[in-house]
Amino acid sequence: MRSALISVLFFMLSFLVVGKREKVTIVIKNGMGERLLRVKFVAVFGIVILTFVLSGCQVVEDFREGFKEGYERAAADAEEKASAEDPVEVNMMDKEEYEVAITEKTQEFIERLAKTINDMNQAGVIDQQMKNEWYDEIDSMEQLTKEIVAMESKETYAEVDGVYEQSMEEFQVFLVHMRDALDKEDLSIIASGAGHLEMGELLWNRANSLLSLTYDRPVGDGTTTTADLKALDKNAGIDRDSVLLNVSVEGPELVGKWGRHEEDGSFQMGIILNDDGTYQGFANGESTPSVDGIWSYDYLREILTFEHEGGLRTITMDLQAFHEDTLQMMDLDTLSTFRYVKEGTEISDQTSEEES
Predict the structure, then answer these.
(1) How far is CA 57 from the centre of its chain?
(2) What are the phi and psi torsion angles at 93 (to 5°)?
(3) Rounded Cα distance, 51 and 188, in Å
(4) Which of 128, 180, 193, 343 is deepest in the core (most CB within 10 A)?
(5) How many domains does the chain have?
(6) Domain boundary, last residue among 235, 263, 292
(7) pLDDT at position 175, please?
(8) What does the pLDDT look like over 139-152, one tens digit per residue?
């Protein structure tokens, strides 16, 4: 879904930004279809297209030619700038202090970044005072990312802390693009940093999910917590913690023969995921595959993708639950839900099924 971002930027000279994630998840509470909306609105910056107004001399071809150069230059500039600065002193915290501080600080950063991007997008004429205010805000946000990176927990959260740090590093590179856009008075330059913005967002979401494994994190205005959202998910058979805990980066755990038990006890094959990246899909009641192709897993989005030749559509599945011998996934286009068990699994009350 968000992999289309760069293509949009190439051909539409657009930039993406929406409101904060928690506001959306509070509103969407019912059923599988609405759960899809929550999946699609998980991004802070990745859904609604707000086009930057470009001057007449700026053309698509020029933008496309400069995109890669600008992307790589900003990453190099950020790395050089970071290496030249004095290291930030580590801020060691107790577990409970870290939980609260990292949640509040990262949320503050995300909200400020979203507001700044939106303000720059909304601006008609940019005067020197506005530029100065934005420079100050970019500097302040950069300092905030350093404070976040400096936070460490004395126990428990080494992995969480590492992912938050990776997220902030991506955002720091994006801030270089924002500053460069002001220097050159060309806001279209911001769009060339979209890859870093997107990756920072994805890593931030993953860090939040890892933190929420053991910390009931407040979301939105604080009246709802991650435990409340997980309870809503459970009603639909969704267990995202199980995906986070049981499926690694490349998804080798997904390899196997998956299907469901019929009423007579026989096993109806659904899909076969091979370790070489190929797969076969079976129609209901068929013993031979009706489709084959390649599969891949995106661990940051928790998405399974099935690609084919011959004009058949690419199928994108939201992996909603995974245990050693069971999985649940939902087709993001049709909203059909598939619950499968691995071949050889004993029949139980949790037999797999397909829902529309």
Answers:
(1) 35
(2) -130, 155
(3) 9
(4) 193
(5) 2
(6) 235
(7) 97
(8) 999 999 999 999 99
